[in-house]
Amino acid sequence: MPQNLFKHQLDNGMILIAEPMPNLKSASICLNVPAGTMHEPQGLQGLASICCDMIQRGAGEYDSHDIINQLDCLGVERDDGVSTYHVSFHASMIAEVLPDVLDIYSKIVREPRLPEDELEHAKAGALQELRGLEDELAQRCFRDLKRIRYPGPLGRSPLGDFAGIEAIDRQHLVDYHSKFYIPQGTILSVAGAIDWPELVELVEGLFGRWGKGTEQVLPKPDVISAYKHIDYPSQQTQIALAYDGVPYGHADYYRARALVGILSDGLSSRLFTKVREENSLVYAVSASPHSLYGCGSNLCYAGTQTQKAQKCLDLVWQTILSLRDGIAQEELDCWKARMRTSLVMEQESSLGRASQMASDWFYLGRIVPLEETQVEIQNLTTESLQQYSVEHPPQNFTVVTLGEVQLELPDGISASKIE
Amino acid sequence: MEFRQAKLSNGLEVVAEIHPTALTASYGIFVNTGARDEQHGVAGVSHFLEHMVFKGTKTRSAAQVNLEFDRIGASANAYTSEERTVYHATVLPEFQKPVMDLLCDLMSPVLDAEEFRKEKDVVLEEIAMYDDQPPYGGFEKAMEMYFGSHPLSARVLGTYDSVSGMTVEQMREYHQLRYATGNMIVCATGNVDFERLVEQVQQASEHWPVGTRIRENFEVAIHPTAAVMQHPAACQNYWIRVSPGPSRRDQDRYAMRLLATILGDDTGSRIFWELIDTGLAEGAALYCQEFDDVGLVQASLCAGPEEFEAVQEVLVNVIHSGVTVPPSQDELEQAFHKIHASIVLASERSSNRLFTVGSAWLSRRAWETADEIIARYRAVTLNDIQRVADQYLKQPAISLLVCGEK
Lengths: 419, 406
What we know:
The structure holds two protein chains of two kinds.
Chain A (H helix, E strand, L loop, with lengths): L5 E4 L5 E6 L5 E8 L13 H8 L3 E2 L2 E2 H10 L3 E6 L4 E8 L3 H13 L5 H18 L3 H13 L12 H6 L2 H11 L6 E6 L3 H12 L18 E6 L4 E10 L7 H12 L5 H9 L6 E8 L2 E11 L3 H13 L7 H18 L3 H15 L5 H9 L3 H10 L6 E6 L12 E3 L1
Parallel strand pairs in A: 2-8, 9-13, 9-14
Antiparallel strand pairs in A: 1-2, 3-7, 3-8, 4-5, 6-7, 10-12, 10-13, 11-12
Chain B lengths: L1 E6 L5 E6 L6 E7 L13 H8 L9 H10 L3 E6 L4 E7 L4 H11 L6 H20 L5 H10 L12 H6 L2 H11 L5 E7 L3 H11 L21 E5 L6 E9 L7 H12 L5 H7 L6 E8 L4 E9 L4 H17 L4 H18 L3 H15 L5 H9 L3 H11 L5 E6 L3
Parallel strand pairs in B: 2-6, 7-11
Antiparallel strand pairs in B: 1-2, 3-5, 3-6, 4-5, 8-10, 8-11, 9-10
């Protein structure tokens, strides 16, 4: 199916990208503002999330109740999130209400009131979430894994830390907002039942007078190899593991992605077959690629009862290593078939397309047509994958385990233990 | 869009909501069996069987089943609840035949003893996983307290002991009894070739056990109680409150869902403004849980242990406010718009429609378009809201607190 992909850059630097999907009734937006956790001042961890919360507690002529009530009455399914680089707003709606919804979001990011009397509520909510994470064992492992693997600003958790949240005052919010809620680096991605010329006019009207700031340079991360165990009285041991990969947009991305897919995508993937089906060690086991700007990692997860945990870690490692011994044509064909289905399913979802286009723009500076992705995938061969896996053996491991017993790292994974 | 249905000579029903221009098609076999249908001593057999169904048939090994789903790029899975076991897959329309060939074949698993032994360990891992996750089996415990000796008190996963002690013969007996043509349906949505689907299913299901299976329904006797369960490592407290609500077949379910949205949705509801916006709680919600013959209104709360009782009181007061401070027309409109949009957005994907269409047919032999469902919500008045509030929010409740050592 031919795709119409559009791009427009406002004079202030903000990027608008869109794909009309005329077979849908819905429209979705993904608004990425370059105000993620990497910009938080030292000692104020949690500021990006609190700022994201506070800007929605009143903006322009709307107070907190107005914003939520209006978005609810417009029937907007929405979510917001904070990552290393961005504060992101995702919203899906019946397409007719898109102008009203964009009006509200333009005020949220451009004209927040940051009401002093609501700051304590926002901080109390953030502290609740931070404490709640202590009970979510797998998430806790990956929070620690990221912190250890990417020391400094790029490894921060959006949930922050207790001291950071306690220290935040309104002036911090005002400064953070004025410095990082800026048009340069902001990407608005829209997909669904939309008319491009009308959308450009609308977005120019809402965001065209947004004043410029100073665009930030994105640092390349350092990667630390280490092992941390968290003693915890749980039935299962949580295993979180990372090793070097390549980021989205890298020339080798699809070769590396296919290898992770052969490890983990689908019912016949190697980790599912070896660790669950043949050895009954887990209910859940997975691997997935993770991208930072200029740096990629592969993340693996397994949860298993304490007495099986060492065997499980050893087998996960052997299964990762097995990629270098060859890729069967059938494995690659299955992965290609799954990707073909998932690319078609993406065309049924306006939110899926809006999110993917925003990611394309951030990592590549352009929108990738689905056909191009399809060709990249179809061109992969078992020989090229095996060559890649031999030339790029898994290395630079970071491991976090949580459970009753600390594990021994298998031979081949060298990482210093940290407390 | 077109709805088609057929009843095969063996009693099996096939239904489809067809969108000829859809890019994908979704297929499901819905079996009218779940935890509430399990006899004493085999708690968890429905769910364990759902795992075993993928572990080999007369013509395919477990590995072949997995491989064949992957060869056609299927997004395939299954789930078990108190009342249903559902096997489903979404594929490109060209793969209708192979995916239905697989799904139909799965309904006759060999239930091999060695595979049974191996898969038992996987199910025990799943039980352990949920026991480690908040609220640490609290929902299951609350259902046991609420339903007492009623079959709906059964845990979907069973317990460590019930699954450990289960035999493959017990599972084979259960499968033979429950997977009968009158106790299941085939449902498809999206870009479906209905004639070929019916033809294929007719052929594939010729040897399936025939007949209907009666589900015994019992009265629920509630004994309002409050209990505390300790999970020493928990940092947060978790509280669950369960009281009666309308069933899946009750016309009042639309009004009750709207009332639950007004009071307890995750944004813009009374609970949101009192507990989440203020940072008093990490999570709090009020929602309906519906079964074929009974229903529940459930509330859940997660917050720090300090001042938890005061936070709990706020939640209870909000629930009661549904009666004492009748919802306004604005609140009703807001709730309607949220539900309206969520139905329209979900209906854009055949994989979402599959569960709505299949569940409605299995439960009520009814097909409703998204527009018809929206019209039922639109017809709800403030009087209806007040009536269901009076009827359900004053009912006795059971509650369970899960807390750490602090």
